[in-house]
Amino acid sequence: MNMEDYLYGKKLHKPLGEKPANMEMEEWNELDRQVLGIVRPCLSRNVVANVAKETTTKGLMIALSGLYEKPFANNKVRFMKQLFHLRMSMNTPIARHLNDFNSLINQLSTVEVNFEDELQELILLASLPDSWEPMRAPVSNSVGNEKLQLKVVEERCLSEEVRKNDGIEKGSALNVDRGRNYNKGSVKNKWRSKSRGKSKSNFGGRTLECWGCGKTGHMLRQCKASGS
Q1: In angstroms, how far is the first alpha carbon of the chain from the final one?
Q2: The pTM is what?
Q3: What is the residue-averaged pLDDT of the chain?
């Protein structure tokens, strides 16, 4: 169990076994209670309810082993259902999906259900969404009669996500550039329209001056004073 590895790493593993002959009972009980206080908070409420009567670290670990690691049929069925119903949603990072997949494979291994590598790879490929079909089909067909390798499939999955993300970023950048060009064109056309309108307005509204009498408001041919 991972908890056992953690306790060994912290040199707190002694309560997993019997009390050493050279250790006082009071010291042993204190150490056992200390380790028990480390393990219990790591358990879910439902699990704690099933092992609440255990008062020693060794007893607790044995009870947990009985719940999750012995090859009981109900645990096998539960883990297998979770594995076969595992589906990657559209917004889930592939790294998280691979972690969930491998976690279920490891849980099945603890109840003595082991899959060959090729079967694991096929289950993993089947759990990917339809949008991953352009990657899934070539990977499935690339090996011919040879068996797939799980490591290769996982690397292809990670590379495919990088490719997808690059495509999204490039598409977003292209849309931004198009938007900028459109805005620039709109401003330029608007400026031209205003300039033309202003020119026309000035031309149409300019003050006329008669060459004959020198007064404004009419032209020479309209001037009564000049007799034309």
Answers
A1: 117
A2: 0.48
A3: 80
